[in-house]
Fold:
Amino acid sequence: MPPDRRAPFLQACRNQPASRVPVWFMRQAGRSLPEYREVRGTGSILDAVRDPALATEITLQPVRRHGVDAAILYSDIVVPVAALGFGVEIHPGVGPVVAEPFRDEADLERLRPLDPEADCPYVQQTVRHLVDELGDVPLIGFAGAPFTVASYLVEGGPSRTLGKTKALMLGRPDLWQQLLDRLAGIAVASLRAQVLAGASAVQLFDSWAGTLSPTMYERHVMPASAKVFAGIADLDVPAIHFGVTTGELLPLMAEAGASVVGVDWRVPLDDARARLGPGVAVQGNLDPAICLAPWPAVEAAALEVLAANGGRPGHVFNLGHGVLPETDPDVLTRLVELVHGGEAPR
Ligand code: CP3
Structure:
């Protein structure tokens, strides 16, 4: 059964009043949960993602434990490019690592269009299993935004400065645009397959877009992200657009075609709303590091987030970035209870 459109998460995404403030956590499935560490084994996360029974179980764990309002598919932003054979691995504690980084025209050939049924059928299979199991809890599908995926392919791994990425962007704008176009097509194919298999919302992760000035973002990145949103618009599912340190980019991230914009903890929600205007829903924005503090401090900070939103509809409570692995899962459960116990948005 597809989830009811009245699920609080979907209503908030549509900027409509909901029966409660919905809450989920980025990276809610993962190393903060003992039950995750128990089933996960020691192989690559990419192997776990290729096992639909395991990926389904891992996705469900935080829903069972915390009672969150949405599940997010257990996968990774590099799964599609890995499935195309670009040569991407994920090293624990490091992130995606690319043996032969993207350098020139010849590397475009390594990024042919994604055929989800042939290249990564396990993703759609996991989505179908999940939709059967989740009942009224919506499933969020996701993709990496062209810029953030490109940053891994160009740098060869995580980078503080994204120097090679920006050098390619400015030094070879023609090649950069072709790279981003291919990655936009791959993201569209992946998101469409997830939605057609039953995901009821999507999130585009542009985690590192905040390293760019608004001018660079608008000129060299936003057109490709806008293509992703345009490519799924007919499916009529809420689309969340997320990044960190994106305070100065928030209006552009909405303009790219998102219905919900993620806000990290550096901008209070009332300020973010002022920058975004009334038509856009917001997601966030508790600092994940605060979850390591004693409960009274966590509670105070969460209440501040709720107060900054001021009871307006269209708020999905979340952290401003992913759950830190050392987080006590009981703190997350208490946060869900706290947010749910609050006053319903008018
Ligand atoms: O619970 C969820 O949020 C769903 C699953 C999910 C993962 N990665 C699983 C994962 C999602 C949505 C992602 C997205 C992702 N992957 C992003 C965007 C979100 C963000 O954090 O900004 C990025 C930048 C990546 C790339 C990536 N993959 C990184 C930086 C890492 C961390 C490396 C590490 O070990 O600290 C990964 C690995 C990864 N992806 C893990 C998980 C649960 C941890 C490794 C593991 O359990 O094997």
Q: What stands out?
A: The pocket of coproporphyrinogen III is lined by residues 26-31, 45, 72, 74-77, 90, 92-96, 142, 205, 207, 322 (CB under 6 Å). The chain has a mean pLDDT of 96. Residues 8-340 form a domain with the TIM Barrel fold (CATH 3.20.20.210). DSSP finds 17 helices and nine strands in the chain.
